[in-house]
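Technical note accompanying the year-one report. For the benefit of new consortium partners, we illustrate the data format agreed upon in the data management plan: each record pairs a sequence with a structure-token string. No post-processing was applied to the example shown here.
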Amino acid sequence: MPRPAAPDDPMPTPAPTTPAPVSSSGAASAAGPIPSVPVSAPDRAGRRAWGAVLAVALGIFCLITSELLPVGLLTPVGDAFGVSDGTAGLMVTVPGLVAGCCAPLVTVGAGRRDRRLVLCGLIALTAAANLVAALAPHFAVVLAARLLVGISVGGFWALAGGIAVRLVPERHVGRATALVFGGVPTASVLGVPAGTLLGGLDGLGGWRAAFGAVGVLGLVALTALLLLLPPLPPSRDVAFRELPALLRGNRAVRAGVAVTFLVVTGQFSAYTFVRPVLQDVSGIDAAYVSTLLLGYGAAGVAGNFLAGPRDAYRTLLAVSAVLTVVLALIATLQGAVAGTVLLLAWGLVYGGVSVSLQRWMLKAAPAASEAATSLMVAMFNLAIAAGALAGGVAVDRIGAAAAPLTGAALMLLGAVTVALTVTVRAGVPGASGAEAATSRADG
């Protein structure tokens, strides 16, 4: 049996085929006559596969938009229910923490269920949660709805992260994974600003209309998944005991979880406080910050697709190293021009993090991709909360510049961790690609 090629393998091992190859005209090769296969059949299959990838990307876009939407609506929601901005901020904290806990729980709980049905159920839950929030009579109802959003985010992301491997040929996995995770930065560029804009239009219902619109978007994503996603029976069950065993026994998975914690915590310790950094350190007028953040998000979309097809280890090494420098500079260099250039560079480089972490896990544990992805997603969401907390402590005790400096220190630790992992991977005799990435080490 040929070894399945990992996503980053430059030369996938071809599998033996019984029929002789068919030319583009439908004629059999010299190996002998065989029934001709219409050219349109693989074309249709290819289009359907990419349609399924787009449907999953739309689901990710809807989920991340839903998770981050309250960032732009804290004040109007707080005013509507008579709660402080800090209390209203629970709309962001609650789903992040719940998503971190539910990523492995949903993966294990899915059992032998068709992943297509599970993904559809989770996106339906997101749609319902946002529609409930739009009609909520009390703030407690909004928080309950946000808890459901957290369940959906953690479960959907954990299961969808490895879907591209099952939908497209191996040579296209990198591009398809980048497309799926393109929903993450696109939500920041389009979803959240659009929801914030809609939430400011009192004549259309204000913040309630924004939540309602995301609920409708969830129904659209549900329809796309039902129509385009093929049945996806699980290849194997995931048991709870596998998760700690995977961490103990697979060095690459263990390193991937550590890198996720360091890089994402570093990112959000700085990014959560990017507005005061741009105003206090770079001297940028508050009126231009929103525009610059749109530019940051657009650069992130470009970075996502640039990183998608590339080797995950080398990409994350470059990303963490460059962000160490960028965050240190944005904390120390004054001037609007420097701040603008560094912010755009920051967005471009960080845009490759999500897709690269996902590909790291796919290479590290190709036979346990759902379990490995659930560990990464759990750590990713918990790191968001940890980063915001670390940055907040630094800002309160030292000042705005301390937030990106904290982020730079964590990024440096992330770069060192990646470098050590690459060194170990390269040192495995006779190993390459996924074989080296899946080298096991006890203890």
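Partners are asked to follow this layout when depositing records. The chain has a mean pLDDT of 80.
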